[in-house]
Each structure stands twice: as structure tokens, then as C-alpha cells.
Design a protein that fits this description.
The chain is α+β, with helices and mostly antiparallel strands and about 190 residues long. It has one domain. It has 3 helices and 10 strands. It has a 5-stranded antiparallel beta sheet with strand order 6-7-8-9-10. Strands 1-5-4 form a 3-stranded antiparallel beta sheet. Strands 2-3 form a two-stranded antiparallel ribbon. Strand 8 and strand 9 form a beta hairpin. The radius of gyration is 20 Å and the shape is globular. The two termini are about 25 Å apart.
């Protein structure tokens, strides 16, 4: 999946490709009634294309999947808004968010979210990085994608009557810890 900047749009940029299905390979169990023994189906992954606009600029996002996750549009709009921030967007010298940083953050998201997970808030950082945030039920999860490429996380949970939880961690190739935090927020 990549986000590409485009000056012009064509009619095909607005079309939403249909999901195609084909019979899946497999063996039927003997205990299935004949009425239900039609060929199982599985979704064929297609390249889905969406176009988003922000501050007069247009971006095309290509995603390979059978369908878009529920969080997709919210996250995509947030990422596109970051790409169009003006210089000094925070009146304190806030730097631009690069397409590389946005693509790195967008590549991370499907590795940590299920298709029906809650969408994060997409927040710019003054140094050109991105922070993904989830806040719910006394819990906070923040994932920072820095402009230099490192990714870190922070978890905080304020429980009633128990000791508060805090965890600061580096994000590597094992996303199980982040997924467990997201499941607790959901």
C-alpha cells in the first residue's frame, strides 16, 4: 500500500473496484448436508484505489485486499491532512510530514489492527513525525513514527482501585504487545 500524490484526477480514480470471488480449494467433511455442499468462496485480493483531497491537493491510496478495513477511511483522511500541513503549522516551527513517514505509518497500521479495530487519531509531531493515538475507558495507547524511522510506543491505563499501568516500548517486528493493548481499548 502506498500513498501517491496526483495533480489531476480521472473518472477511474473515483471508481471503487468490486470484490471478486472464486471457488476455494478444499475437502468437504462427510457430516455436511448435501444442501450446503456448494463450493466455498474466498475473496480474491484486488488493488483497491481511493482518492482523498486536503487543502487543494489530491492523493491516491492503493491498497491490496479483498475489502477495506473499517478504520481505513478515517486513517487515510488523517494521513492526507498531515501531508498538506503548511510550514510552521503549529506556530512553533512545526516541520512538514513527509510522504515517506506517512507511508511508514500506514504500512504499520494493518500489522497492528484487525479489520474492525478502532481507528487511531492521526496526530502530527513538530519534528515531522506522526503519532497514532487511541484513548478509551481510561486507557491510552500512543505509537510514534519518527521522521528518522524509529517507532516507539507508550501505554497508560488508569484502573479503578488498582495500580495504574504504564509501559514505554520500542516497536520491532513483534506486534503482539500492541495488539493486546488495542484489544483492551476496543
Amino acid at each position: 500500500m502506498r500513498i501517491d500524490y496526483h495533480d489531476e484526477l480521472t473518472a477511474s480514480d473515483w471508481e471503487s473496484p468490486a470484490v471478486a470471488f472464486e471457488p476455494a480449494q478444499g475437502v468437504w467433511s462427510q457430516d455436511v448436508e448435501p444442501f450446503f455442499q456448494s463450493a466455498p468462496i474466498r475473496a480474491v485480493h484486488r488493488q483497491l484505489t481511493r482518492t482523498y483531497s486536503s487543502r487543494g491537493q489530491k492523493f491516491i491510496i492503493r491498497w491490496t485486499a479483498s475489502a477495506l478495513p473499517s478504520w481505513f477511511d478515517t486513517v487515510a483522511r488523517g494521513m492526507v491532512d498531515l501531508l498538506t500541513l503548511p510550514s510552521n503549522w503549529n506556530a512553533s516551527g512545526g516541520g512538514p510530514v513527509s510522504l515517506d513517514v506517512v507511508n511508514a505509518a500506514f504500512a504499520l497500521i494493518p500489522r497492528i489492527l484487525e479489520t474492525d479495530s478502532p481507528a487511531p487519531w492521526v496526530v502530527p509531531l513538530s519534528d515531522g513525525g506522526i503519532q497514532l493515538e487511541w484513548h478509551s475507558h481510561g486507557a491510552e495507547l500512543e505509537i510514534v513514527v519518527e521522521h528518522r524511522g524509529s517507532i516507539t510506543g507508550y501505554w497508560y491505563y488508569k484502573s479503578k482501585g488498582e495500580e495504574d499501568e504504564e509501559d514505554e516500548f520500542a516497536v520491532g517486528n513483534d506486534f503482539s504487545q500492541i495488539r493486546s493493548y488495542i484489544a483492551r481499548i476496543s
